[in-house]
């Protein structure tokens, strides 16, 4: 019997014409691992919230949801709250308590469990997750990944039968995301917990999934085993969903001669198996054009021998760091958590002044923010907004910098970004991508020469990422220099020109992006891992493959 | 894990502080207060090598000097007139009263510093959560929120600096305006994120039924024994105060500061109460020494 079943579930938010969910019917067997994907605003989160009664959105609803054959509403609220657990996107905001220990037992206290039982359960869970060393810590001292694991553990302590996850790894770096997803998979494999996960990191979750649900415009478009779903999306040329396919599969679909559903690679291992069968002679080597990344190199910003630490006795965040940024390039800085990437951007923006070292912009030293020339977009764009509307914010910014005929500049920028429709809304009420764009409009208004971006793709869906990347690329062609700090190597590989690796407060390598990723054995894109050391020309992205291998089909 | 005095049941620790403050307030005698001060300073050093105490020491000196000077200036009672200042008598009694006030202040402050170490917020909450479960949860939430808001404000300040909103420079009026704007951003942001916290709370069954509270502390035999000792000592101490011992009589006659006869007995009890944590710590240290052999 299905553990969860929805029958023609529809939902419309108040004052909205179109339903957020439209006649959604599906059933989930116990122990299934379901991945839900689709563009932002396609109703994925709404669906999870409908299943999770306590936080169901307010609005017009129809249809029924069954849990173990009985309507959700017929159960005792405490039982259902316990048996359907949910983990949310933001690791920080889900946390209620100050210490890990208190956070873990929060749910247990809510369901009225006696102290002794709590101790036993906690002992088990802590052992299983290996988080004994975190128990007495203050939560804010943990990394994002650790926080999210605490959130997961805290939900699992209530022994749910169904686990709902709403983009749980969107705010995490790739390594932490991988750890988290494997933990979820382990719970699914070893304890048979049914998992419904909304996720954008498809390379990671597709191999784990039993079935994939594709949502678009509030309805369930395609469902089935991952490979079937991929094949279907491809065969029906369902273009808006292409960015959602794992790049291993995309590479295969674009270059495989006779498409076999079972052959669609989901993992790098499968991908390499396929790639090893490809033959070299099909490639016209003369086609391989030499990339010349030696345009006129005109340094616009120089960081020389910077030392930085936040506290006198604290850790040195940046150590004798030097970096040159050339005019008109897009530089990506990658590196593990806590290596000082974000701090470096703040220093470059003049927001933090280094203890030692020089910053030179256009041949002049500076130590204060020069926002008219160097714009900085923080990781959390919310911090930028002061006014009630996006328009107000733009006007305020223009006045702040005493810009002349700013109306025109605002209009021009708004049009470029395509955010006309949200101008009169509160910056917090728009989607993640729109908020990012509004923030970009604000910092780009004074027409700066350099744009510093801190994790611009965090929390964006694949489609928005591509759109953002393309837009930034177009700005770059208009002369904007971009420096970006990111964990998103796929994004960096696709769009940036030059990449640098940061390690222990220093820049270790700086080279053109393609060489950078080809030189890395571990820190590189999925496509590169799939194609390296084979008989085919090594590529980093699907786009590069198209360019180098040609769009013609390759014979297996 | 805590050890020594801090490993006792929170109730014992709390009782100690209540009783110690009572004894300090009752025994207004320079000799008693000086010893209390000495014991508590030692206690501070045992806890954290006096690090916290050092931070407070300058403020303590300034405050006690203020008391020492202001009391004789405002209080003119007493028969031993030392001299006249602006036509008002400065009496020895008032000076002694000032000394007593200043000493009491120092002793209480020194005690409070150790309180923060021994009675951490979770222990404190544990004690009161039994009677006020809702309030204790609210307090626990705020315990997290204060530093959280502080960190967020720092972040906002850094980012907004880039937009030219600075509270560190410019005319005062503008700085205030900027400061308010920053706080406004903080509030909007935090309220927005607070909704997510609320969701996460209700997703974990909050508010559906009566909560239980995890009790991390058990009352052991040892703790009960300690409570008995403390209560017995304080009972005797209060009896001594009722007899009038250990209180320096100022009016109508100024009593000599030196202790006599029976007062020494109550002094010993006083020292035992105030020095209670030191005894516990000392006992543990000695046990450790023996165990090592």
TrEMBL record, chain B:
Bilayer-spanning residue ranges: 7-25, 31-47, 56-74, 94-118, 225-244, 264-280
Keywords assigned: Membrane, Transmembrane, Transmembrane helix
Compartments (UniProt record): Membrane
Topology of this chain in the membrane: Multi-pass membrane protein
GO cellular component: plasma membrane
Pfam families for the chain: CbiQ
Chief location category: membrane
Protein name according to UniProt: Energy-coupling factor transporter transmembrane protein EcfT
